[in-house]
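Wed. Picked up where I left off yesterday with Ig-like domain-containing protein. The coffee machine is broken again, so keeping this brief.
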Amino acid sequence: MSSNFDFSSTPTIYNYWLFSYYPTPIPNETVPKTTWSAGNGGSTNMTFSQPVTNPVLLIASLGQTGQRVTLGFSLPYVVLYDGGAMSYDNSTSITGEEGYAIIMFPGNSKNVVITSTTPEDYTNITWGLSLPAFPVNITETASSCGSTTVTASGGTSYIWNGGDNRYSATNTFHTNGQYIVTAKNADGCSVSVSKQIDVHVSPTVTVKGNLTGCGSVTATASVDNAVSYQWNGGNTPNSASNTFRASGRYTVIVTDMYQCQATRWIDVIVNKPVVPVINITASPSGQICSGIPVTYSASISNGGDSPELSWLKNGTPVGAGKTYTATDLASGDKIECALASHIPCAVPARLISNSIIADVNATPTITISQRFVIDGRSSSVQLNPVVNGNIASYLWTPAEGLSNPNIPDPIASPRFTTDYTLTVVSAAGCQATAPVRVLVLKDIMIPNTFTPNGDGVNDTWEITNLADFPKATIDIYNRYGASIYHSIGYVRPWNGIYNGKELPAGTYYYLINLKDQVHGAKSGWVTILR
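Structure written out below (tokens, as returned):
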């Protein structure tokens, strides 16, 4: 015996004298003392080492005066002895208010579970066996759909705990359950036995098979002990398995060996085969120049709600979706699109579009590696780019300062630094461009004062044209000859700051080396005004 609470024992049965009228002597020995726990409820599990017939439970001191305690049982019981203060609620429940009783669980048992949701700190229980005074048998005599008839034998009178004929040896039942019959013999002795009654009811029909298909679908109905099937359509309406060639709602009636019938309906969807179509186009189409992006678009029909598109370049997947843009095409590249249609009954479900073969012309290349500088030693320079390709035309822009803007190597004589662009067009119409700067070096203009006061005006020492001399070095010294500024190039003009602090107003001295053969070094002074 186990429980979800700790139980102890008592050396005797509490109020043992209340059982003195029971016809069979009861041993007054040590018995379990139980404590039905509150909260989740008390539970005691009695497991017999082997199946026993008609186990008997003695209950002493269930509840107390003013406190009713209810026990529930996993099996139905019958009362053998009422010791008082006990209410027999139903076949599986009993309530005591300091109650005493002996009950029996008819039939063969291996385990009995007792539960309670009412706190109780003292109840004696003990188990025994009650041998029947005479044998009672229950046999099934008839069975049909919705009812089972059984007959008890061995006694002279009978009382059932259910059924249509409770006071007859033969009784008919319409629901499943464990039923008990109490029989008396001619001497007035009583015996209670139980039997599990199984009533045959309308079966459950299961239908297997894919009920959506192309051209036809096959459904198979199944019922245990079925003897006949009747569909309201299909190729084989009298078989469990039936094939349908038209959409609709179909019903099957199944009869089993007990003449119980069950009905089940199914919705069948039969789709007709459809042919998917895919076609692709290119923009721009025809001949293209290398490096020019080409966008391919797919138009489809019968693809379903979510068709899958896979773009192929020379048979290798390169993209997905309704469009694909290629930027690295070469002549002879084959572009196709594969369609996986999700529309029901697509035939074929996967197909390849038409092919578009790329016709690519080479784009000219322009290489300009030389730096063009007019530094005062001359007033012009010849532009000499390296151009590859079958060139049909040259165009330099702007044309100002050029000897001829329509030749590959004009003479450039700009007055100021000028950015030119060369555009070439091949015989196939492919175009390439390249920029080139002609740097016209002019002498720098050095102001001798600036006012770094944060007003946004003349806050830095701005030296005109110094940006044209990227290798120039600029050094500034205080009146003691100490270096306070050094820079290679003049990307960020001096703001009068040294070591993170503002220099005081005064005169400072500079040395600027332009690193140019024509323009020499410059030196002088600059004054900070604050």
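Quick read: The chain has no helices and 48 strands.
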